[in-house]
User: Fold Late embryogenesis abundant protein LEA-2 subgroup domain-containing protein from Acer yangbiense.
Amino acid sequence: MPTPNRIPIQITPEKPQPLQRHHTARYYAHRVRESLATRVSKTICIGFLSILLVLGIVAFILWLSLRPHRPRFHIHEFSVPGLDQATGFENAQITFNVTARNSNQHIGINYYSMEAMVYYRDQQVGSIHLKDPFYQEPKTTTVLDATLSGATLTVSSRRWEEFLNDRGKGKIGFRLDIKSVVRFKVSTWDFHRHTMHATCDVVVGPNGYILPTSKDKRCLLGLLALCLWLSLRPRNPTITVVELSLPPGDNRTSVTDDGNNNGTLYYNLEIDNQNKDSNIYFDDILVTFYNGQDRAAVDRISAFTLGKGKTQRMAARDLSVDGRVWKALRNAILNATAEVKVGVVTGLRYKTWGIKSKHQGVHLQGTGKIGKDGKLIGKKKKIKLKHASKKWRVKASHIHN
Ligand SMILES: *[C@@H]1O[C@H](CO)[C@@H](O)[C@H](O)[C@H]1NC(C)=O
Ligand SMILES: *[C@@H]1O[C@H](CO)[C@@H](O)[C@H](O)[C@H]1NC(C)=O
Ligand SMILES: *[C@@H]1O[C@H](CO)[C@@H](O)[C@H](O)[C@H]1NC(C)=O
Ligand SMILES: *[C@@H]1O[C@H](CO)[C@@H](O)[C@H](O)[C@H]1NC(C)=O
Assistant:
């Protein structure tokens, strides 16, 4: 044994113990029992894993057999009669016949409302509401046919000339897009919704009827829930104050202005929905004008719906500006240093392909400089409202609640 006062190097290490040992019978009995226990636990483990594997295979087979197949679209007919007439666009018609096949054994498909769009050189020349929501049984085919004419068709004489020009070359290419939202259904179990987009390229001959090369052709199908959702995701409406006027009135009265005289504010609001596929349902819109931190005037526009791709300009509105604020604001206007802040608070929902989105809040703000004449300064004479900062939102909600 080493003692503290000895130098460690001098220690000769003990030789490793030989492995052979003298074991008792009790030790061997213990070893046997131990290996029995490991073998049992191993067997249980293997059994358990096997069951898992079998369950996995069963689930995989079930998934394979139940896996929803996307519907298949084929175009059978497509015609533009009257193509041989120079003035044919006046009563132009486009007729098509497409079939949608649900090839699934057990899975039905719920279609939400379905729309069809016809494109010529990537320009939309017509669109039509094809079907209200419907359910398609497994192993069935649905015929989707329609005739576009009049209001559903937007063919100008120029476009018709382009048709005729192509016709002279022997063929005219069109694209038929069918859009819907689908949901697969197994007995009572509904899957997620997917946005569906079938694209049928079609070529018609000089007689206006589909060429054999296009007939009964399968249409391309986009059924990418996420990607399409992203591309179809509604865009925020743009809200703009297009005319803002705070007439300062006569110079002379300003001298005696005691803060009891209210001012008047005229403005116009333009709301633009750029979404081709979504209507927007607006809540009441609260419009507040500020001079610095002071609230000058408040307006409330009643809830309304803005259609797809529409722009709405509210009728000109006039508001009373609080006398105390007006005094300061008017002085600033006459001094050409006035700046008016506009805050818009509302809420909205989008309705895309028959489906309403979640309700969402909208807080916008913008600032405009006012000239001596009480009108907006700047080239565009408008205030485009942008998303409000958080700080402002807190303030606005505080004011409006
Ligand atoms: C549309 O095409 C399908 C399949 O070819 C056919 O069964 C159906 O009768 C057609 N419908 C019309 C209106 O032409
Ligand atoms: C107001 O007063 C300014 C000078 O202080 C003058 O230039 C301007 O023409 C006046 N405007 C009106 C409408 O009287
Ligand atoms: C002035 O404005 C205030 C609030 O903006 C309003 O309550 C009041 O009735 C107005 N007075 C007149 C005379 O218009
Ligand atoms: C008028 O504008 C000048 C600067 O352009 C500023 O110094 C002055 O304080 C302003 N007066 C008022 C009453 O706003």
In short: The radius of gyration is 37 Å. Residues 251 surround 2-acetamido-2-deoxy-beta-D-glucopyranose (ligand 2) (CB under 6 Å).
